[in-house]
Design brief:
With 163 residues, the chain is mostly helical. The protein has helices at residues 2-14, 18-38, 53-62, 70-88, 94-105, 114-120; strands spanning 130-131, 134-142, 145-152. Helix content is 50%, strand content 12%. It has a three-stranded antiparallel β-sheet with strand order 1-2-3, with helices on one face. Helix 3 (53-62) packs across helix 4, helix 3 crosses helix 6 (114-120) and helix 4 (70-88) packs antiparallel against helix 5.
Length: 163
């Protein structure tokens, strides 16, 4: 519901409605707090909060932590991970377009060059969510639902973001 509400009002929220933006931030914090409260040790649903962070952290590391701000890198990571989910058949493909459009309307980057993504990909193997040659990657299935998938790192390759 929060995603859809933000879709409907993103232009107003981004263009200067501080009150509206504060309300979205407050609601996002409430949702995140509830997930953390219910899974303090990240044994279940809490891992879904890492959506976008695996690829985002790789982009940050590749750019020596100066190329992108954290939120920008995570936004690009979300898009890359949506493509990965679609390629694995777990994510509905239209989520990429909706998410890309919304992130763009909020002033976040929505494209990264293939060469930059390829160069960042080596940092995936050192991500803290890896274990025994696999990585735990939270992937949305539908709007508002996600599952954490253990994926062999050797089978992951840098996705190509549609333009």
């Amino acid at each position: 519901a929060l995603f859809e509400k933000l879709e409907a009002t993103a232009d107003a929220a981004y263009s200067g409605s501080a009150q509206m933006l504060a309300e979205y931030i407050r609601r996002a914090i409430e949702l995140k707090s509830a997930v953390v409260r219910d899974d303090e040790r990240e044994l279940g649903d809490r891992a879904i909060l890492n959506f976008g962070h695996t690829v985002g952290h790789a982009l940050e590391a590749r750019g020596n932590f100066t190329r992108y701000r954290h939120g920008e890198a995570v936004a690009l990571g979300m898009l890359a991970e949506l493509v990965i989910g679609a390629e694995l058949g777990v994510t509905r493909p239209e989520l990429f377009t909706r998410t890309r459009d919304l992130l763009g309307r909020l002033g976040l980057p929505t494209s990264v060059t293939t060469s930059e993504l390829d160069a960042a990909w080596g940092f995936i193997a050192s991500d803290k969510k890896r274990s025994h040659g696999t990585i735990r990657l939270p992937l949305p299935t539908t709007l508002g639902s996600a599952m954490v998938h253990k994926i062999p790192i050797s089978s992951l390759k840098a996705p190509r973001l549609p333009s």
